[in-house]
Amino acid sequence: MRVSLILRSVAATWLAVIVSAGTAFFITPFILHRLGDEAYGLWVLIVALSDYYLFLQIGVRSAIVRFVSRNLALHKPEEVNRVIATSFYFFMCAFIVVLGLAFGLYRHVGHFFSVKEVNDHAFASLFLLVGIAQALDFPISVFEGSLEAAGRFDQLYGLRIIGMLLRVGIIVWVLEAGGGLFGVGAATVLSTLTLRFVAVPLAFREVDGFSLHPRGINKQTFREMLVYGVTSFSVGMSERLKNSFYPLIIVKFLSASALTLFSLPVKLLTIPLNGIGSMTEFVSPLSSQLEAQQDKAGLRRLLILCGETAFVLFAPLAVIMLVLGKQMLGLWVGREYMAAYPLLVLLTFGLGVNAAQYSVQSMLFGIGKHKGLIWMRLIEGFGTAALGIFLIKFWGLWGYAFATMLVAVVINLFFIPKYVCGVLEIPLGRYLSKGFLKPCLISLPMAAAMLAFAHIFPANSWKAVIAATMVGTIVFLLTILGTMAYSQQKHSSWWSLGVIEIMRRRFLNRDENLELSAGAAILHEYEKIEEQSVAE
Fold first, then answer.
1. pLDDT level of residue 517 (50, 70, 90 thresholds)
2. Is residue 361 within 8 Å of 373, Cβ to Cβ?
3. pLDDT per residue over 298-348, tens digit each?
4. CA 130, CA 153: separation in Å to the nearest integer?
5. CB 35: neighbour CB atoms within 10 A?
6. Contact 252, 41 (CB under 8 A)
7. pTM higher than 0.90 for the full model?
8. String of DSSP letters for 296-354
9. CB atoms near residue 502 (< 10 Å)
10. What whole-number distance in Å separates Cα of residue 345 and Cα of residue 326?
């Protein structure tokens, strides 16, 4: 792949992340205050319901990227054709099934969730429209997956950026013109869907061997795609179940307005937590390489380094949410929604520790030891739902948020680490001490500084929130530098952060390890750091 194409793809990816975060942050209060709590909660519910259609993908979407990219690299256009044609006609069958479900359910779904009469017609009509759009998602995903396989992320994310900006403009216009729930939903669905069709001609142009002729359908190809896709789909399904359960449960047992209150902390946390999750991209291929070389020591170092890096990012985020979260909710969507702050506290830990373990999950996929992970993720999804249904009857929204936090902490800070530490033969205490406890302790001075600053200068404006965050960030960085200096003076590496120490050594010793790959160089540097703390 050309370097210029890689750079364009990386730039487009990060630009899409920034635009997505910005548009979600600014458009959410605009929609909320014009639709109201009930209608906004119903929109969140419809989106969650539509996610269940995606279970019909059974991993074929991810298999398209895998098999098309491999056959493109091997210059086998006939194999590319088989993958594309086979998956396209499979998805056309899914298209028919989803259409049937949408038309069969839309008259009854409002009654099941006890939707008020004033919103019942709009809810049913929008459910049908979203179902039709979701049905079209299946065949379109063949074209988008083929573009991903060809490395044309610049085109895909470019279309998504244009779609997001177009969607914001149309939503604002619809709401200003007096549109309600159906208008906002239709504007969102149709603006997104229209631009996605642009991927069709792009895929024909960019992918050598792209053809939809039925003669390309191949049973053996389909079996191979299923074998590859079902496992990754199982983990993804459990994640999707966890995210799709809470809207159904909250609306069924409480109300759509209660779902609105719950969804606001989730949306506020999703933006930064997605950034933590994105750091796992290099873990799977690097761990596969180490596993192939039977370098279990390297895998152990990679495990600790990944855990440490994830919690170094999560700990300051948790401090910011705990100290300033209530004021941020009030400034973002209005003071009446500051009541969601206790939910934000619980969900910060629940969703945060889950995102912090994405790197461990990626490692298990890389070394082919992910079957146990499937069961733990399924237990997490169904366990959260079961415990949440029980507690919501006594404590309402706070009961479900507590269930989310409790199950996530137990699974992600005990069972998953215990499993991966058993696979790599590393003491669980060592992983938790270096990968979890150390970053959390280093963030304590940041918390104290932000609390003191917020007490002296109340965070009653965005300027004050930004100022308090900057003060906390500076203290956090100074704490890291101080612990590194202390570790060097005392000849102990426990307090120093491995990822920071690696960066320091790489920048100060530019001539070292130039012959190594980036991942191997990282582990080579980390091995030096680990050698300083053998006694630990």
1. very low
2. yes
3. 888 888 888 888 888 888 999 999 999 999 999 999 999 999 999 999 999
4. 26
5. 22
6. no
7. no
8. HHHHHHHHHHHHHHHHHHHHHHHHHHHHHHHHHHHHHH-GGGGGGHHHHHHHHHHHHHH
9. 20
10. 9
